[in-house]
């Protein structure tokens, strides 16, 4: 392996070799056609430089020969190192590991740069591709679901059965001995509304768009419901959820879901009648000082968080609900056709790709 010269003092200045790599990426372009943006090119080159510095501290990136010793590269990229190449310790004295997303960025950049060379050993390239693909299937405890260890801990401790038991308690709750009639009615309304919102959120992998859903009464679809989100009541036994506005609606368009299940349909009928909800009215509202007020999207997380904190001692958001009710099996290699069908349906309802579902939302099941 060649001996690289000392690193430059100006970290923003590209070495002649890095400038060469940047130009090669511009000329080669993407495999499926098109060109890389300058930002993407900078990311590939800079991450490759950082990976090289992990392996050979204090030296400048001058070629890709160093990547051929993939065992050495893997050892160095697995841990966070200081400027001298020594492993940094955490508060418990353990070696601090590199997060999976950061490792994935390193390996992807190495692959992209090495692919510029037609004579690069295919067996070495294959090794890096395997590592990168495995990293895509896993989530780092310090990074998953927004980087929160607390959220990851909740996913490990709260199961779908726990949520179902809580929902049953909400649905069948009775008046407490120390409650006044007014206190009971207020609590009962909040619990019944939360039960419906949570059931619909679970059924269709919703985010917080349930806050803006309005009732539309019609005899058949399609219905001129305007822009917005609508619960379309076709009959006392037939409901359809129509969503035009949700986080990724600009890309994935309108979503239409049939609502099935005797229990939830019965509850919807009762809720609409009890609340005296008319055509065009909001389906769910807050009730404060004798009047109904619209819900904001962030209110949904508050409602869910308050109920789950009371019943399960932890706050469960719509994101965590989606992860808890994921149809993905613990071992993806053993996924059945039924599993994959359910997984695709969840991703489609949510409005994102399967790759996003697996890499961001699905919890690591052990």
Structure description:
The chain has 366 residues and is α+β, with helices and mostly antiparallel strands. It contains 15 helices and 6 strands. The chain has a 4-stranded mixed beta sheet, with no helix packed on it. Strands 5-6 form a two-stranded antiparallel sheet. Helix 2 crosses helix 3, helix 4 (100-114) packs antiparallel against helix 5 and helix 9 (181-204) crosses helix 12 (297-312). The longest helix is centred in the middle third of the chain and has 24 residues, at 181-204. The protein is elongated. The two termini are 41 Å apart. Residues 1-11 and 139-147 have low confidence and may be disordered.
Task: Considering the chains and any ligands shown, give keywords for the structure.
single chain; four-stranded mixed beta sheet; disordered N terminus; elongated; 6 strands; alpha+beta; 15 helices; 366 residues
Determine Rg (CA atoms, Å).
27 Å
- So what's the overall shape? elongated
Mean residue pLDDT = 83
SSE string, helix = H, strand = E?
Answer: HHHHHHHHHEEEHEHEEHHHH
State which percent range the strand residues make up: 5-15%
Number of DSSP helical runs: 15
Kindly summarize this structure in a few lines:
The protein is of the alpha+beta class and 366 residues long. The protein has helices at 16-28, 38-55, 70-77, 100-114, 122-137, 144-147, 149-157, 160-171, 181-204, 249-252, 262-274, 297-312, 318-324, 337-350, 354-361; strands at 213-217, 229-235, 238-243, 255-259, 285-288, 291-294.
